[in-house]
C-alpha cells in the first residue's frame, strides 16, 4: 500500500522540490486542505481489510465505496487550486488509492459491480 508521500515527480522535474516541500510543510491554504484530506483517506484505507478481487468485499470492508466516493471528489478538487502540489502526482495517488479499494473511477462504482474487475483497475493504476 503506497501512501500520498510516495507520489513525487522525478528529481529532475521542476515540480519535484515545490511538490515535496508542500507535502512536508503544506501552507495554510489549498495545500493543507488537499494534503490532510489525502492523508486522512490514506489512514482510513489502511484500516480496511483488503477485498478479494475474485469474490468482492470481505467482512469489514464496507467503507470501500465511501472511500471511492471521497477519492472521486478529491479528483474534482484537482481542477481547482493546488498550490505547489503537482496535480499529476495527486491524480496518480487518487487513481492508485481508488484501485486499492476496488473503486472504478470510470463508472463511479465498485469494480466488481461495474464489471471491470478489481485486478484490471489495479493493473491500470500501477501502469
Ligand atoms: Zn468500471
Q: SSE layout and pairings?
A:
Layout: H1 16-24, H2 30-45, H3 64-77, H4 87-100, E1 103-104, E2 109-110, H5 111-114, H6 118-126
Helix pairs in contact: 2-3, 3-4, 4-6
The structure holds zinc ion (ZN).
Residues 104, 106-107, 111, 114, 116 line the site of zinc ion.
What attributes does this structure have?
6 helices, about 50% helix, binds zinc ion
Tell me what you see in this structure.
The chain has 127 residues and is mainly α. The chain has one domain (14-126). The chain contains six helices and two strands, in the order H-H-H-H-E-E-H-H. It has helices at residues 16-24, 30-45, 64-77, 87-100, 111-114, 118-126; strands at 103-104, 109-110. A two-stranded antiparallel ribbon has the order 1-2. Strand 1 (103-104) and strand 2 (109-110) form a beta hairpin. The protein is globular. The model has no long low-confidence stretch (mean pLDDT 89). Zinc ion binds at residues 104, 106-107, 111, 114, 116. Zinc ion binds next to helix 5.
Structure summary:
By secondary structure, the protein is mostly helical.
Order of strands side by side in the largest beta sheet?
Answer: 1-2
List bound small molecules. zinc ion
Secondary-structure class: mainly alpha
Q: Overall mean pLDDT score?
A: 89
Which percent range describes the beta-strand content? Answer: under 5%
Amino acid at each position: 500500500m503506497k501512501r500520498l508521500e510516495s507520489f513525487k515527480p522525478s528529481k529532475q522535474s521542476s515540480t519535484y522540490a515545490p511538490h515535496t516541500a508542500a507535502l512536508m510543510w503544506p501552507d495554510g491554504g489549498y495545500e493543507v486542505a488537499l494534503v490532510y484530506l489525502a492523508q486522512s483517506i490514506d489512514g482510513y484505507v489502511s484500516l480496511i481489510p483488503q477485498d478479494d478481487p475474485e469474490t468482492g468485499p470481505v467482512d469489514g470492508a464496507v467503507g470501500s465505496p465511501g472511500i471511492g466516493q471521497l477519492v472521486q471528489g478529491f479528483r474534482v478538487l484537482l481542477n481547482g487550486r493546488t498550490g505547489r502540489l503537482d496535480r499529476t502526482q495527486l491524480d496518480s495517488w487518487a487513481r492508485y488509492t481508488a484501485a486499492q479499494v476496488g473503486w472504478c473511477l470510470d463508472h463511479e462504482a465498485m469494480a466488481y459491480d461495474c464489471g471491470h474487475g478489481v485486478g484490471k483497475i489495479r493493473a491500470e493504476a500501477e501502469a
